[in-house]
Write a structure and sequence with these properties.
Uridine Diphospho-n-acetylenolpyruvylglucosamine Reductase, domain 2; Uridine Diphospho-n-acetylenolpyruvylglucosamine Reductase, domain 1; 5-stranded antiparallel β-sheet; binds flavin-adenine dinucleotide; 4-stranded mixed β-sheet; Uridine Diphospho-n-acetylenolpyruvylglucosamine Reductase, domain 3
Amino acid sequence: MFKLIPNFSLRHNNSFGIDVCANYWLTISEVKDLDEAMTKYPHLREETKMIIGGGSNLLFLSDFDGVILSPDFCGYEISYQDDLVIELEVGAGVEWDDFVEYCVEHGWYGVENLSLIPGKVGAAPVQNIGAYGVEAEQVIVKVNGFNLETSELESYTREQCQFSYRSSIFKEKMLNRFMVTSVVFRLQKRGELVSEYGDLNRVMKELGEPSLKNAREAVIQIRRSKLPDPKILGNAGSFFRNPVLSAREAASLADFLPGLPLYPTSGKEVKVAAGFLIDHAGWKGRRLGRAAVHDRQALVLVNLGGATGAEILELSMAIQQDIFEKYGVVLEREVQVVE
Ligand SMILES: Cc1cc2nc3c(=O)[nH]c(=O)nc-3n(C[C@H](O)[C@H](O)[C@H](O)COP(=O)(O)OP(=O)(O)OC[C@H]3O[C@@H](n4cnc5c(N)ncnc54)[C@H](O)[C@@H]3O)c2cc1C
């Protein structure tokens, strides 16, 4: 059954806590709900549509003049398993971290390093979420959903998803045109932990034997110590992507900035730590109006209370300009701005 709410405040549905409204909020838990809602309220067909999960990767600049679709598809279903792997179809409306916890409890490897990332399962393929050396694309087999333009059910294989660093076809060409209803993941029953990233190995050893549960616990501890809780301080995690440079550009930047963390990619390019650049440029803890750069994590912009989306955007643009002037590096946004 669908649920339609007019003049909906989005304040508690975006992790920045920006105080904006949408014309309508439409929750659907089955694909047919969408058609039923449009049949009962035909004027909804003319409204601009936007799909939302947990709102943890969005920056609203103003009220949304349209319908926000909130897919609330639930449940887990095993689609295949053998001695080594299990394929699990998970509803788009499931909380991402509930899914990770479920896998760890069942002893299935693959998503433990992605513990505690806010948001819903349906959004994971959209920006190909990643953390601690693991990206969602490594475990996604298929993305199922509904094409809002053709009203057809469609499935995308991993190749068709066109995954890249914090992006996919769903964040580009199909943005707000394809509603993810479920994602099929392939997890390993006898996997290996990925623990060489950052402090993960050290924290896991402090917790005891290397294990799935300790890997998850270590990630949770590290994240809690570094990242502000959006329930207390509005934010959307990393505001910028780590810039990807040629090996030569990265090496000359590292000569100029000793200690700059460099992460080789699978190609010939090198990812450099955007947070290091922002910190080095003196932005950590700085504020502009009611927006600020977090004092422990320079990659995270925060709402100090009552900030507008425009204030946060203004701060982000000042940082982008400064980083370009100081280091010649273009910082791209990871967070999606909704105008
Ligand atoms: C404290 C904090 C830490 C974070 N850490 C990380 C991190 O380590 N790694 C990382 O990658 N991200 C991180 N993020 C960003 C964010 O959690 C992820 O991008 C997450 O996947 C967003 O999920 P969501 O459900 O909140 O999506 P939303 O913010 O609601 O939406 C994000 C995008 O996905 C689209 N979308 C959402 N659901 C669907 C659907 N069912 N069908 C089609 N499109 C959909 C939306 O239209 C939008 O374009 C962090 C955020 C916060 C606040």
